[in-house]
Amino acid sequence: MKKDTRNLVILGGGFAGTRLAADIERKLPKDWDIYLLNRTNEPGELRFDQLVLATGVEANTSLLPGMHEHALPLKTVGDALRLRNIAIERLEQATIHPQSDRRRQLLHFTVIGGGFSGVEIAGELEDFLKSATRYYKNVDPDDVHITLLHGTDTLLPELSRKLGKKTQLLFEKRRIDVRLNTRAARIEPGEVILASGERIGSGTIICTIGTAPTTYNQVA
Ligand SMILES: Cc1cc2nc3c(=O)[nH]c(=O)nc-3n(C[C@H](O)[C@H](O)[C@H](O)COP(=O)(O)OP(=O)(O)OC[C@H]3O[C@@H](n4cnc5c(N)ncnc54)[C@H](O)[C@@H]3O)c2cc1C
Fold first, then answer.
1. What is the mean pLDDT of residues 60-84?
2. CA 13–ligand 1 middle distance (angstroms)
3. Residue of the nearest CA to atom 16 in ligand 1?
4. pTM of the predicted protein model
């Protein structure tokens, strides 16, 4: 770090941080340096004259009892890769499992939350599982089941009701079980327990509800 320069430090190399760095680079006076830091390149200690916090949000896994322990978040590319690997693992487990009801439970994927992330992952999972299932000779495609739980009466509440309804109809055509006005109350190993008391047995549970600002106590 040069002594006679001033430092702009941007914490967070996501959408906002990288966009800011790219936009501001040529506009800053010559005696300013920019440091763009992400989790993977934090240098320890760094002096700053201006600090921008652009560290985004993280999955809030404390919204439902059992969510942190028994459900998967979907926030980062890493989460998506993990989910893809788990889907493959479930197909492998199912292909060698002799009991059909256990196979169906293994191949039941439940997504909690019908907002942008929940709808995206339910659609992607259906697509992925449909094409992957044919490589597992003992897996009957009818054993694969995706349920999307959503707390209000329309999917994608940020968009118009018309688009929410259209998404629902498309999903139903693709045999994704859309359950509206259905709230998860807690999650137990392999089961979602609804507010009504109903239990949904599911080998994989994905929670897309809730985010929280990134906490800074993780910065060592
Ligand atoms: C599944 C999913 C799909 C999405 N699809 C779309 C889409 O199609 N179109 C769209 O416009 N938006 C989409 N979004 C939303 C979009 O990702 C966010 O709005 C956007 O990433 C927010 O930008 P950000 O810079 O605030 O945060 P982020 O992009 O999350 O960036 C924050 C960065 O800060 C880093 N960081 C965190 N803590 C620290 C720390 N202590 N020190 C240093 N670095 C740290 C993180 O590693 C991360 O790289 C999607 C989101 C999800 C979860």
1. 93
2. 9
3. 15
4. 0.87
